[in-house]
Predict the structure.
Amino acid sequence: MRGFWYRIGPVITVVIAIFVLWYAGAVALNSAWAYDKAKRAGVELTTSELIADTMSQKKPKLPPPHQVGAEIWKTTGDMVLRGKAFSKRSLLYHSWITLSSTLLGFVLGTALGIGLAVGIVYNRTMDMSIMPWVIASQTIPILAIAPMIIVVLNAIGISGLLPKAVISMYLSFFPVVVGMVKGLRSPDHMQLDQMKTWNANGNQEFWKLRLPSSMPYLFTSLKVAMAASLVGAIVGELPTGAVAGLGARLLGGSYYGQTIQIWSALLTAAALAAALVGIIGWIQTRVLKRMGMAQ
Amino acid sequence: MSWLIAGLVVWLVGWGLNVWLAGQPKTRFTRLLVPVLFGVTLIAIWECVVQGFNINPVLLPPPSMIAVRFASSTDILWQDFVQTVIKGAMSGYIIGCGAAFLTSVIIDRFPFLQRGLLPVGNFVAALPIIGMAPILVMWFGFDWQSKAAVVVIMVFFPMLVNTVQGLQATDHMQRDLMRTYAAGYWQTLFKLRLPAAMPFIFNGLKIATTLALIGAIVAEFFGSPIKGMGFRISTEVGRLSLDMVWAEIVVAAIAGSAFYGGVALLEKAVTFWHPSQRG
């Protein structure tokens, strides 16, 4: 049992510390408005009144955790209980919009990335011409072109899910290419020679040696790609004029100063990212264990 | 029609040349020439296709038009560059990476913090931190300070995780050797562990360059004074003058590559002893 607390104890301490800081920050940042209100009403605030006020403002500078929690519950669980799980005010609806384009972009990006990686590993010309560009393109702030992709695809009649998925795909395929190229090249000369002595042809070499040994690299880059894909989907929702999705909730909240809405969208996005990356991590452990590669 | 034929010819010639060059023995020259040729061919094909099919410049402007726009509006581009890259991204990058570095030295000193903060840091590094942008814009105002704040938060965690990992990169033998020399904590830190951590630190610094630019540009989508690359991109997209958007993207690409390249050069100078740099 000591081992469990040895690992978890510090994490819990840090998380508690974050919450304490969060509350302290909420009091500090929101007190200005509370004082302002009190001054106009002509009353003096005691400390407890001040704290109570900073905890329950309508548009606080930094909403305390319980307000955000209440907002999240109001827009998810409560909606479900009232049978309006997918109304436009529900965070579930917005999360689903974001999740669908994230997943579509992730699948497209992974497929494109693996395809390119195979091409790069097997074709010397592709390796020499494309690989430097793949690496160079990682230094370029690709997200900057998100608004353009949305508008241009809209102009030629493609709207909705696909443009956002294209941005997600664009962001997620780089980590996959880089990881897979490394992975497919990870078998050393000894192993490749061994395949040759077994008279394996190129196909067999790929399916039985290169692909299996690239799996750890693939999963590591899939986690990065998933996180990038979610960022792409959220940013892709910004220029559409705040229609739907978590990104639209962020933008709408920032237009109207609805800080609680921003924070609830933000925390939902964080939970989504954690869940998605967690699922990949879980599959990774299972697959690598089955393959006898897990430590 | 002639444009399309020209495009086809350029494609075939470029392709053939690249296949031939790739077949030659690998030298420094071919390693540089092949990707450059690939890029040039791509741009030439782009030009020919846009001209040949008469694609509306609102959808996809030809490279020549982008180049003209780039040359004719250098003053605006420069102003945006200063606002976004120098003021927003750079100051945030320096503050964020510096803070992360100091924090990780402290974390490294206390194993309790290490076990507590590292999982949290790893978790946060995977989150869509860019979503913090609207909140920070609200707190720090529309000008570059809020963009720098976004960049600070974006670069902090990747940098932290990498530096902490780097500080643990020395093995027991090396640390024991320092102990037999009667070296104190600070001496061990400066003479052994920090130098050994440099490859990891630079890895973090390199990841952070891209994040810094992305953070500064995207934060401008949430509100900014009437200059800045993100602002220009979002408004010019709205006015459908895509040549200007592409010009900004060219600036972003150049700035990003230069930033990354600068850090990479610094890395080469600092970690010349590391196996990955010899070779």
